[in-house]
Amino acid sequence: MNEAEKLKKATYHLWTFTASKMIAMLGAHVMAFGFSLYILAMTGSAMSFATNMICSVLPRALVAPIAGYVADNYSKKRTILLAQAGTIVTVGGLLLYTETVGMSVYAIYIATVFNTICSAFSGVTFSSAIATLVNPERLQRAMSFNQMSMSVAAIGGPVIGGMMYGFFNIDVFLMVNMVAYAIAFCLEATMDFNLYSTRGKDVKKEKVWESLKGGFHYIKQRKVIKTIMWVALWINLFFSAISVGGTFIIIELLKVESTHFGFIQASGAAGMLGASVYFASRSEVKVPLRFSKISLLLLSGSVALAVIPLVTDFSYLAVVIFYLIIYFIFAIFEMGINMPIGVYMQKIISEEYRGRVLGLLETMAMSMMPIGMVIYGILYDTVPATIILPVTSVIIISISLVMLRPSILREAHPEYYDQKAIAESIPNSTT
């Protein structure tokens, strides 16, 4: 295949995987919305709702390293298609169970666990394959389109699900999910996951444990990658202050209506969509780790601002508008952290290790979310939110300054800092 044909195929990939991801995620969000409402309607228990959330997070954190091993040692295309097929079979099984026995909360839990495992394999494998689907010059655009599709699904899923809930039973939600994943399956079956691969065809497969050890060793030998993974771990822990505290402050303390809170959450998805469009339309970030550090510091500072309505006499309308803006800003800065680092990781991680490294990164990041939720759940019941958020903000800023210190940035981007040093020395040499 000549270069012109490869570029044409890469362009096809850019639009095809964006469409497939959007359709699949839209189906997933519609079904998740339906599940949450049906669980609350059947049980009236917040604990039952929380259990389903755990079923959608914990299995993914546990199997992500195995998914990374599979992505590095087996056909990426086959893995993704099998994972998509697994989702269709799982939802089809739940639909059959519902038609013959009737819906139950435990059946939803089991289906959620299997769906989450399938999602882990397809998600990690897809992440490790983006750099082989498109040419390096369009890597940032591809990842932006990927995030854009998820943002559109995050906005559209609850809207469609909300409209459907009043007119259809759970069976229709399940069928929508199956149709969405079937369309995604057909689109992904046409893609060439080795288009820009640099690996040889005769790759020796390792045993699982040896492969995972190799992934750990690879990370250990690369200081910058190791630093990024530790930053992701701590940030996911401490940003539970917003994921837990945001709802608590807005609903419980400020008494914002649930409908208006839905708009506030949607503003976050809109912020992600806007940031995705920005990154898709601009040239690649030249110093990604530095860009991400600045975004992280800005996001950390914004966390402290979230307490302003608690210490001022805002009207109800002012409170809603304030949090619409703050959630929009959170999303933009979050994308400013994730997008440059994501592109940077795709480029610096060797293809033969990419799946394992990204799988381990996902496990480290996601494993801290339940811990953070528990810690901050206890803190918000015992300590005023006006103390928790400013202190958390200071902690995150300190982590950013220490872990992403100038020496790490210089090691990550020596070409930029060497040129900067040369440029700064020129005036001194002429005086």
TrEMBL record:
Chain ranges passing through the membrane: 12-40, 46-67, 79-97, 103-136, 148-168, 174-195, 228-251, 263-281, 293-311, 317-337, 357-379, 385-404
Molecular function GO terms recorded: transmembrane transporter activity
Keyword check for RNA-binding: no
Keyword field: Cell membrane, Membrane, Transmembrane, Transmembrane helix, Transport
Name listed for the protein in its UniProt record: MFS transporter
Pfam family, one: MFS_1
Domain of life: Bacteria
One GO location term (cellular component): plasma membrane
Location (main, coarse): membrane
